[in-house]
Amino acid sequence: MIFYMCIFFSELLILCSRFRVSYITLAMVISA
């Protein structure tokens, strides 16, 4: 059970970091 929770949280972190990167690039495009 804990194993699946770890997988779920790691996937969530990967998704969050990916969205954060896309937001940063979007902000750079808007400011440039």
Explain the overall architecture.
The protein is mainly α. The protein has one domain (1-31). The protein contains one helix and no strands. The protein has one helix spanning 2-31. The longest helix is centred in the middle third of the chain and has 30 residues, at 2-31. The chain is rod-shaped. The model has no long low-confidence stretch (mean pLDDT 87).
Please render the helix and strand layout as text.
Elements: H1 2-31
What key attributes describe this structure?
single chain, 32 residues, mainly alpha, 1 helix
Overall strand count = 0
**DSSP helical segment count:** 1
Order of helices and strands: H
Count of discrete domains: 1
Q: Indicate the radius of gyration in whole angstroms.
A: 14 Å
Q: Biggest sheet, in brief?
A: none
Pick out the low-confidence regions.
Answer: none
Strand percentage lies at: under 5%
Shape: rod-shaped
